[in-house]
Amino acid sequence: MKKLITKIKSSAIVKNDGKNFLHFFLAFTVIFVALTLIIIQVMRSGLFKATDQNLEDLGQNPEYLWSLVLHQQSNSGQPNNTNQGNRIGDYGPANSILIYDENGKLVSNPTNSSSDGGDQILEGLEKAVKLDRKAIGSIRSITVKNTLGADWNYRYLTMQSVNVSTGQIGYIQIFTNVDQLKESLQRNVFIIITTMTIFWLLSILISLYLANWTLQPVMLAYEKQKEFVENASHELRTPLAILQNRLELLFQKPTATIIDESENISASLAEVRNMRLLTSNLLNLARRDSSLKINSEETQPEFFDSIFTSYQMLADDADKEFSSSNKIEGNINIDQSLVKQLLTILFDNAMKYTNDDGKIAIDISKSGNFLAINVADNGEGISDEDKKRIFDRFYRVDKARTRQKGGLGLGLSLAKQIVVAYNGKITVEDNQPQGTRFVIRLRLDNPLVNPARIFQKH
Question: In the prediction, which pLDDT does 84 show?
C-alpha cells in the first residue's frame, strides 16, 4: 500500500497538478497584491486631494500669509490688500505657518490659527520640521509627537516669498492638520487589506479547482493512452506467444518436412497476418489522431450499388442473407474512401456477430444536408453496458468469440473517428425483434474543420 501511495505521489500527473496549482495561486497573489496597492494609492491621492489643492491655493498668495503674521489676524480674518483676481484658499483652525529668513533660520513665531494649544502645536512643528530648499513647491507629509505622546499628522507646503514689509527674501511653510483624514485612511486601508486577504485565501480553493479542472482533459488522455498501450501490448503478446511455441515445435523436429509441419506453419502464418492487421490498424489510428482530412468528390449513387454488390457476394459465401436499399437521388459530395471504410467496418461487424442464418440490411439515403446510413442485423444484440464502450479502442463485446473470428476491437473506433470528422453522429440501438442497429448521420455541408475535435470525449 505504501508503495502504491508513493508511486501515485511521484506520478507525472500529480506533479503537474501541483505545478498548475502553484501557477494559479501565484497569479491570484500577484493580482490581489497589485489590486490592493492600486486601490490604496488611488484612495490616498483622492483623500488628500482637497487638502493639497487648498495648500497650493494658499501658496499662490504669499502676501496673504505674510499679512496673517504681520497684522496678527484672527483665524477667520481676511486681509484688506488681497488680489481680487486670485483665489487665496481657506485658512482655518487646522492650519499653521512657519517663516524662515533667507538663510533658512526660523525668524518668527506667528500666531497659530487656533486659540487653544496654538503655542504647543507651533513648538512641536518647530522641533520636527527643518527647512529643505529641495522641497520648495512640493507637498510633504510629517508626523509630530505632542506632549501626551500622541501623533499629529500634517500635510505642508514649502515656498519661497518676499516679505511685503521689508522686501527681504524668505521662506514660508504652511501646514494643514490631517488627523481625521489619516484615521479615515487607516480604517479604509484595514478594511481593504482584510477583504483582499479573505479573497486571497479563497483563491487557494479556486486555484485547486482550476488546477484540477484544467488537468481533467490531460488525465483523460493519459488514461486513454495508458489503456491503449496496455491493450496493444496484450494484443501483440498473444500472437507472439503462439509464434514462439510453433517455432519451438519446429526446432524439436529438425528432420521433418514442410508437409509434415504444414499445420504449424499455417497457424504461424495466420498469427503473422493477424499481427500485420493489428499493426496496420494501429498505424492508421495514429495517423488519423494527428489529422483526419475530408477529401470530398462528386459521387454518383451507383458508387454505393457497387459496394453493396461486393457485400452480397461475401454474405452469400457465408450463407447469410444480405439486403440493401439505396435511396440517394442525384450526385453527392463525399470522401469515397472514408465512407466506404465506414460501411465496410459496420458490415464486417454485422457479419461477425450474426449466426449462419444471419440477416444483414443496409439502408442509405440523403436527408437534407445529411447522409443517413442504417446497418441492422439479427445477431445476439448488445447489452446497455456494452453500448457505452463499443466505440473504445480494443473493446470487444465477446472477447473469446471475437478473438476466434479475428476481431481486434479497433473497427468501431475507426468508424467513430470517421463520423466525428464528418461532424456527424453514430448511435447503436436494439433491432426489433432481435439484433443490433447502427444509425449514422454524416453532415455533408460542414465536415470537421479542426481535426482536434477527434480527441473530444463522446
Answer: 39
* Average pLDDT of the chain, as a whole number: 76
Q: What value does the CA radius of gyration of the chain take, rounded to a whole number of Å?
A: 45
Query: CATH number for the 297-455 domain, one of 3.10.129.10, 2.40.50.140, 3.30.43.10, 3.30.565.10?
Result: 3.30.565.10
Cell numbers at 324, concatenated: 440493401
Reported for 285-290, long-range contacts at CB under 8 A and 24+ positions apart, including other chains, are 285/393, 285/410, 285/413, 285/414, 285/417, 288/414, 288/417, 288/454, 289/454, 289/455, 290/451
Omega of the bond leading into 217 within 30 degrees of 0 (cis):
no
Q: Are 413 and 346 in contact (CB under 8 A)?
A: no
d(CA 375, CA 347): 7
Mark out the alpha helices in 74-172 (DSSP H runs): 118-128
154 φ, ψ (degrees, to nearest 5): -135, 150
Most distant CA atoms of the chain, gap in Å: 137
Q: What superfamily would CATH give domain 49-79+86-177? A: PAS domain (3.30.450.20)
Q: What residues does each domain of the chain span?
A: 49-79+86-177, 231-290, 297-455
**Nearest Cα residue to 239 out of 191, 275, 190, 277:** 275
Report the pLDDT value the prediction gives residue 73, as an integer from 0 to 100.
40
> Which has more pLDDT, 173 or 400?
173
H/E run at residue 316 = helix 302-317
